[in-house]
UniProtKB/TrEMBL annotation:
Boundaries of every Protein FecR C-terminal domain copy: 267-335
An MF annotation (GO) of this entry: sigma factor antagonist activity
Record's protein name: Fe2+-dicitrate sensor protein
Residues in the signal sequence: none
InterPro entries assigned to the protein according to its UniProt record, in alphabetical order: FecR, FecR_C, Ferrdict_sens_TM
Listed Pfam families: FecR (PF04773), FecR_C (PF16344)
Domain FecR protein: start-end pairs: 137-224
Superkingdom: Bacteria
Length: 341
C-alpha cells in the first residue's frame, strides 16, 4: 500500500515512519520532508500519528537481548492465526506491546549496530569539518555555501555549515538573522537548525531571525516548512511571515519585504518603533553602546527609512523629529534633551 493511502493506524504500524519520529536521520528526513511537501493534505494525519508515537513509551533503541528477542518472537507466533487458502497480511493497532514486538523483532541486533556506527561516523565528520561565520555588532557579510546557496548574514549573527554537503540533507545551524537564497535541489532539502526548531526548504528565498526566544520566518519566494520543538509543522506561502514570541503561540501574516529584508541592502527601517527598539537597532547596526537621559512619553514611537547612512545622519533625523541631542565618544553615544541640561 502506498503512503498516500495510509490512515493513522497504518502510520502507527510503519517502522520507517516510527524511526523518523523517534530517531530522525538524514535518510528519514530526506524522504518524509519531500513526501509531506507533495501531500500537504496529510499534514494533520501525520501530526496525529506523531503525537501518539511520542506519547506512548517507545524504546529509545531497537536492539534486543537474545532472551527478549526469543520471548517476543514466540509471543507473536503463538498469536498468529492459521493460514487460509487466500493468505493476507493485516496488522491491527491493538496496543503498544504487540506493535513494539513486531517493530523490535524487525530490527536485528546487527542492524542496530550498523546504525550506531553510521551515526557516530556522521557525527564525527560534522564536528571535524565545520565552517563558522560570525558577525559582531556593526558588521554584515554575504557569502556562498558549498551547494551554491547565497547567505546574507546580519550583525550579531552566526552561521555554521559543513565544508561539503555530503548527505541527503543540506543542514546548517544559525543564531541571529540571515537572508537565504537557497540553490534549488529537490533531492536534498535545505535545513536550518535553530536548536529546538527547524526550517526546511528545497529552493527558495527567505529571511530568518532567531534571537532571545523570538522567531520570524518571512518567505519571499518558494516554499518553507517550519517545524516546532514538538514536531508541529507550518507551511508558508510567498509573502507570508511566521512569528513566534518567547513562550507564545505561532502566528502568520503578510509582510512588507523592504521592512523585513531591506537590511541586507543597507536599508535601516523604523516603523512605529518604541524607544528601546530604536536603541537596539542602532546598537546592532552601528556597533555602538547607547545611553539615554531622556524622559519620554509611554506612547513615544518613531518611523523612518535610511539607506546606507552614517550614525550621525540617522541620529540627526531622529533628533529633529523627537527634539533630542546626542554626543558621540568613540563607540559610546549619549542621547539627552538639551532643554534639560
Amino acid at each position: 500500500m502506498k503512503y498516500s493511502q495510509f490512515d493513522i493506524e497504518d502510520f502507527l504500524n510503519d517502522e520507517f515512519f516510527i524511526r523518523w519520529v523517534k530517531k530522525p536521520s538524514d535518510e528519514t528526513d530526506h524522504f518524509w520532508l519531500k513526501w509531506i511537501a507533495e501531500h500537504p493534505d496529510k499534514i494533520h494525519l501525520i501530526q496525529k500519528a506523531r503525537e501518539v508515537i511520542l506519547f506512548v513509551d517507545y524504546k529509545d533503541s531497537y536492539c534486543l537481548s537474545d532472551k527478549t528477542y526469543t520471548d517476543l518472537y514466540e509471543s507473536i507466533i503463538s498469536e498468529t492465526p492459521p493460514k487460509s487458502s487466500k493468505p493476507t497480511l493485516h496488522i491491527r493497532w491493538r496496543g503498544w506491546h504487540k506493535v513494539a514486538a513486531i517493530l523490535l523483532v524487525t530490527f536485528s541486533s546487527v542492524y542496530c549496530f550498523k546504525f550506531y556506527l553510521e551515526d557516530r561516523e556522521a557525527t564525527s565528520l560534522s564536528q571535524d569539518e565545520v565552517v563558522v561565520k560570525y558577525n559582531p555588532a556593526g558588521q554584515k557579510s554575504s557569502f556562498r555555501l558549498p551547494d551554491g546557496t547565497v547567505v546574507y548574514l546580519n550583525a550579531k549573527s552566526k552561521l555554521s555549515y559543513p565544508v561539503t554537503f555530503s548527505g541527503d540533507v543540506r543542514k546548517v545551524t544559525m543564531e541571529g538573522e540571515a537572508y537565504f537564497e537557497v540553490k534549488k535541489d529537490n533531492a536534498r532539502p535545505f535545513v536550518v537548525d535553530l536548536g529546538e526548531e527547524k526550517v526546511r526548504v528545497t529552493g527558495t528565498s527567505f529571511n530568518l531571525c532567531s534571537f532571545k526566544g523570538f522567531l520570524s520566518v518571512a518567505l519571499v519566494e518558494g516554499g518553507v516548512t517550519y517545524v516546532s520543538q514538538k514536531g508541529d509543522m507550518e507551511q508558508l506561502q510567498p509573502n507570508e511571515m511566521l512569528t513566534k514570541v518567547p513562550h507564545g503561540a505561532v502566528s502568520k501574516r503578510q509582510f512588507d519585504p523592504l521592512e523585513i529584508c531591506g537590511w541586507k541592502d543597507n536599508y535601516l527601517i523604523f516603523k512605529d518603533d518604541p524607544f528601546d527598539k530604536v536603541v537596539m537597532k542602532l546598537e546592532r547596526w552601528y556597533g555602538v553602546k547607547i545611553s539615554s537621559k531622556l524622559t519620554l512619553n509611554a506612547d513615544w514611537s518613531y518611523s523612518g527609512t535610511y539607506h546606507d547612512k552614517s550614525l550621525e545622519y540617522v541620529l540627526e533625523g531622529i533628533g529633529i523629529a523627537s527634539e533630542f541631542a546626542y554626543a558621540i565618544e568613540g563607540k559610546n553615544v549619549t542621547i539627552y534633551n538639551p532643554k534639560q541640561q
